Structure formats: structure tokens, C-alpha cells
């Protein structure tokens, strides 16, 4: 297979979206499923082909550009639609099409009873197309196109059940919060264009080290603006509020968009722009701090949520925080590694949760689950693998990726020697909380006494093969996915080697500048690394043990503790009242201001001017109207008088 | 050669007839009378034409008069038809009762 087939990878899902979109309601379900899954599956096959082709090439030649057509060509601005394949985008392409394909297959089972089946697959295919454009873009504007495309599809799919007011509201919330992030991203793009006169990745990144000084205000500003965009898309503090609400969408959507792919776009963007961040250590430090804070903060909220999908949503926010922490300490490979393993185990967790919800006829409250182990054997087993992976238990994938991040944070020197240790400590506490809340979810769902309602018990069944097969495949990936990057083993760091051509220049830029974002592999102390690994493993096991104590050994304990620490419990149960604070401090003032503008300016000034003119014209017309009496003889009289005046004038002149 | 009536007398008569027509159009309410007044004005003009034509020994004025009479006949036919149609609908021939077209 040749790399020139690359254009088919995004085009196939687009064709699927068009066919399913226009055929919605007319095509039979079997055809919709075949087109929906087939196009993505074929794209996955081609992606594997391209990946294999690249693997066969020497490391320094692994770069391929395919120009499709000119998009914008105006003055200095020239933006082609051009796809670029390098080790990073190839990896992302594999994740998007591979996990995407499994979720498409799962959807054929999960959405089977759904009326708007065609519309669902049209949106899902369109999302895959947009995400692939984002990943494969070779300039900022095309990336922004994909960025907005995935945002649109996210909005459409969160509000898929638009008849439900909460789903429509959640869709709007996601869209509006993402606009704030996009505002930052767009300003960053403008700043890049003003600085470099080009939006091309190749030109911007190769010229950046010579045009921007390390730590200069301009570099920092670009980094911060781009990070605002990443914060919006990847749900980091303070723009994290939309992701938990996004769980109103169908569960496979949560798995694909709000766990495995779209929300990682921010991480991917920062990894892509790593050279710009290498030049802006302050911005990078902020990325690390926001990431660590989010990882910790979202984990605490996840401790007490009752809705199974909401726990997973906060867990996603928290895990994305880890990825940003990795970006922030300059450990791009570790961040991308965690992005990959997270795509596996979090997609699996969501799909497993979907399988549970499906089995319980739509029940999402964990207080009405329990003891499902016997009824859902395959779901239970795969979920257990995913839970072990996310908790960071050796040798599951999450252990390797999370540990690599923590190790890199510990040895980071950006922002002083203490900063790295603090970031590591935050990550470690987060890891403990993660292990705890994930096993809380696991125990509450599958173990203990059954709290399932009688009605749901009646329909209890294991999901069909179309749903369990993706679960099994993802479970395998979650279990062994970490083996691509084994620490301390010679030749074990395959991912490092694969991504090395992409990220090598960051270390060079930073290293050449002396005090940039430090390359953390400088001082490698194997003993220390093993010690840190042991600590995080102990912490993860401790989290699991505590969860077992609370939810299996003594099920009354959580309630007692919640009573004792009532204020704290209420605070985290209500998500630190962030939504309420935003509502009171931002949404309501804007609302009041808008209302004032509406009444004060729009209604009074603009409408006043328009209506005033109309009223004056009406009044003038009313005066003139009285001349039109309708009596023929009045007209005749006026005519005669006029004639007399004219003749008189001519005669007496 | 018999003594001729001076041209100005014809003109005075035509002016008187025309004025009577104008006043009739302006003051009478009956559509039929207004119509007759219009005919009076037309014929006042005709008289003036004929007088001038004779004075100048030219046939132009006569030809004008024939045209005016022919057009007036056609106009009368249409005008009477309209008046009859209005009378059928509104049972009146008074122009004051027909004033729908107003602001």
C-alpha cells in the first residue's frame, strides 16, 4: 500500500456522513450500519497500511505531505488543504480510526432501538472526518477547521436526544464553553500569522527558534492563547464545566468524543506546537499547574458522584489533567502515551458503563446497581481490566503511562526544583483518588447486594456480541497497551523511539537556550525511578483497599463519613459549586447587562430611531390623507382652481 | 353679402356655455346632470372651433369638431354604462354617495 492513499482516510468517513445524512430515514438499518462502520473500518485499514509503510522507512524520512487543493489564496494568506503524516499524526490517526471503528461497531448494538439511527451514524461519521482533519492538518487554519468540526459534532451528539430539555441545555453549554476556548485559539492563530506571516506548521515551527527569543512576551502570549483553546476543548479548569454535562449524549458518543478522541485534541495541539512551548517556559509551567490542579480537583469530585457516567466524566477531566501535566513538564512522549492508553481504557470504561446501562434499561444511578457480576460476566471482566488499568496497577497500560508522567514531573526543573516535586505530589494524590473512585464505581456496580429495581431486574441481560466484542478488544489493548513503552529496559521504549523525530527538536531548542523547559531525561537515576514506581503502585493499591473497605466490607461506612464531614461532602458532591458560581458571577451579570442593553439600547435607541421615523412618516401621511376625500367634485374643483391659477398667471404675466 | 355676426360674439357665447358647463359639473350632485354639463363644455369648445374655422376659411376646425363629436359619443356610451352599473349596485345616481376611494 502506498502513502498516497492517505486522503482516503478522512474522505471515507465524510462519504459515510453524506450518504447516511441524506439517506436518514430512507435507508434500511442494515445499510446504515454497513456504511457507518464500513467507511470507518476501511479508513482504519488504510491507516494501518500507512502506518506500516512508515514503519518500514528510516526514522528521519518518516514524513509525508499530500496536497489536495488550495483552500484560501488571498494576498499574503495562503492556506492549502494539505495532509501531513508524521509519527505523531500517524499515531493519532490510528487511535481515532481504530477506537472509532470499535465504537461504531458497538453503536450498532447500543443504538439498535433508536429511531433516528441514520442521523446518529451520520453525526458519528462526520465527527470521525473532522477529527481526522484536525489530526492530519498541516497548518493552523485547517486544524481549526477540524477543531470546529469536532466541536459541532460534539454539540449535535450531546443534544442527540434534543426532545429532552437537559440534553439540549448540555449541548448548548458545551458549545458556549468551547467558544471561549476557541476565542483563545483563534487569537493565538492570529498572533502566529502576524509574527510569521504563515500558518504552515513546517514554516512556523522551523522559524520559531530564530524569530522568538526564549521566554519572550510574544512567545508566552502565543503559548497562553493556544492553551486557552486547549483548555476549552480538553475541559481543563476553569473551562471543565461542560464535559460532565456532556454525558447527556448517548454513551458510545461519550466514549468516542468525550473520552477517547475529541477531548484529547487540546493535548495533541500542544504536542504539535511543542516548539512554541519550548520557547515559552512560563506558559509551559502554567500548562503543568493547570493540568495538575485539574487532575486533583476533578478526582475529588469523582469520589462522590452517584451517576456512573458522571464519575467517568470527572475521571476523564482528571486524566486529561495528567496529560497536560506531562505536556507542561516537557514530557511530550509521556503525555501522548497516556493519551493513547487513556483512549483504550476510558473508551472501554464508557462502553462497559453503556453495556451496564443498556442491561438495566437506562438506569445510570449506581445506588440502584450492585451485584451485577453474575448477570453481566463479559462486561464485568472487561470493566475490571479497564479499572485496573486506570488505577495504575502493574502491568496494565495505565501503570506505565501514568508512571512515566509522574516520573517526568518529579524530575522536571521548570519553575524551580520544588515545582516539579509539588506537581508530582499532586499527581500522586490524584492517583490515589483515581484508584479509589474507580474501584468505588466497580464495587458499587458489580459487587455487594443488588439494589436493582424490580422492573430493571426483569429485563436484565448481557449485551449482544456487537457490543461485547469491542469491549473484549479494548480490554486486550488496555491490558497490553503499556508494553510499547517499558521503562528501564533497553529497547523497551518503542514509543519514545517512534516519536523521537517529532519531539527531538524541542529538547534541542530548550537545551540550546539553557534554561528553557528542561528535557527531563537528562539526569536519569534508575534507582529513583524504581522507587517512585513502587510508591505509585503502593498508592494505587491503597486506593483500591480503601474502596474495598468502604464499599464491600462495610457498606455503611461511606454514609457515616459523609455525615461526619458534612460540609466537605456537600461541597464536593455539588462540584465545588462551580456551576453556581459561574452562574452567579458570570452568566447572570451578562444576562442582566444584556437585558439592560436590550431595553436601554436596542429597544430605546435602535428601535426608537426606526420606529420614530416610521411614526413621523405616518403622521405626515395622515395630514396629506385628508386631501383625499373621495368626492369627485372636490377633485374637479381643485382641478378647476388650478387651471384658473395657471391661466391667470399666463394671462397676467 | 349679408351682415355677419362678429367673431367675438361667438367667443362670448362659447365662454358663457363653457362656464355654465363648469359650474354645472362643480355644483350639481346628479351624475346625469354632471354628464350633460360636460357635453355642454364640449359643445362650447366645438362652437369656438367652428367659428374660428369660418373666420380663417380653413377646414381644420371642422375636422376637429367631427372628431370631438365622435369621441364624445363614445364617451357618453361608456359613461352612461358606468352610471347605470353604479345605479344598479347602489341605487343612487348622486356622486356624493360614491366616495369609496379616499385616504
Keywords:
heterodimer; A: 653 residues; mainly alpha; two-stranded antiparallel ribbon; 26 helices; 2 strands; globular; B: 103 residues; Helix Hairpins; elongated
Question: Could you explain the architecture of this structure?
Answer:
The complex is a heterodimer of chains A (653) and B (103). In chain A, 50% of the residues are buried. In chain A, helix 1 (8-22) runs antiparallel to helix 2 (29-56) and helix 8 packs parallel to helix 13. Chain A is 73% helix and 3% strand. Residues 512-522 of chain A have low confidence and may be disordered. Chain A is mainly alpha-helical. Chain A is globular and about 125 Å long. A two-stranded antiparallel ribbon of chain A has the order 1-2. Chain A is built from 26 helices and two strands. By secondary structure, chain B is mainly α. Chain B has a domain at 29-93: Helix Hairpins (Orthogonal Bundle), CATH 1.10.287.3510. Chain B is built from three helices and no strands. Chain B has helices spanning 7-27, 31-56, 60-90. In chain B, helix 1 (7-27) runs antiparallel to helix 2 and helix 2 runs antiparallel to helix 3. Chains A and B meet through helix 26 of A and helix 1 of B.
